[in-house]
């Protein structure tokens, strides 16, 4: 793999692979972060973590910032290559196709102990269009495919490499079909989506990688505006105020009566 580039796995180029000595899931694992252009992490809230079959599943909420660009940062802490399928609002960020987070989809490859960031929808080998938080009506998944089936979710599935080569039939890479889901207007502006932003240079190369059928890790980030997270009770959003400035004007209360009771109007 060429250093300084992003390796893209195209399904029809699966030819051969190296054999890992131990399972990647036995190592330190894979870290996922959502970063701003300044490198700051967006605020996340743990939700659920469990094992489904052979897959570790991690779910978190994330605070979206309206109009802000973001990148998905992935760190491979294992001594083996891994493949990652990344979907935003239910669409594969390389092909734009509807994603079910499966092993046969287009994916990015990370070398052992490599860290890489993915900041947009790939439109060719050298260009991506930036992710940014926006309303559902402006989201790429809705504007291009009419798909609201996984709105507001950033999903990453991580695959180990298979030990033996096999051949794959070339798959057609046509445009995805629009989803017959609810109209974006029904979601309202209190929900968040990801837009198709300005293009930026992002070179890539195709490499040979044969993923196992089942991912060893799946990370799902449900992003919402701050007010939505507040309504859901996931963030403390009430202002503490100022005990001197905000106190209402009123007369001094009388002391409690002989039974320790306070007059009702001063409760």
Principal-axes shape call: elongated
Strand content bin: 25-35%
Write the element-wise H/E pattern from the N-terminal end onward. EEEEEEEEEEEHEEEEH
**Secondary structure tally: strands:** 15
What is the structural class? mainly beta
How far from one another are the termini? 71 Å
**Overall pLDDT:** 80
Low-pLDDT stretches are 1-7, 9-27, 169-180, 263-267
How many helices? 2
Radius of gyration: 24 Å
Share of helical residues: under 10%
Protein architecture, described:
There is one protein chain. This protein is mainly beta and 267 residues long. The chain has one domain (6-240). The chain contains two helices and 15 strands. Strands 1, 3, 4, 6, 7, 8, 12, 14 and 15 form a nine-stranded mixed sheet that branches. Strands 2, 5, 9, 10, 11 and 13 form a six-stranded antiparallel sheet that branches.
Topology, pairings included?
Layout: E1 6-9, E2 30-35, E3 44-52, E4 55-63, E5 69-76, E6 82-88, E7 91-92, E8 107-110, E9 115-118, E10 120-124, E11 127-134, H1 140-145, E12 153-159, E13 193-201, E14 204-206, E15 217-224, H2 226-231
Parallel strand pairs: 1-14, 4-15
Antiparallel strand pairs: 1-8, 2-5, 3-4, 5-9, 5-11, 6-7, 6-8, 6-12, 10-11, 11-13, 12-15
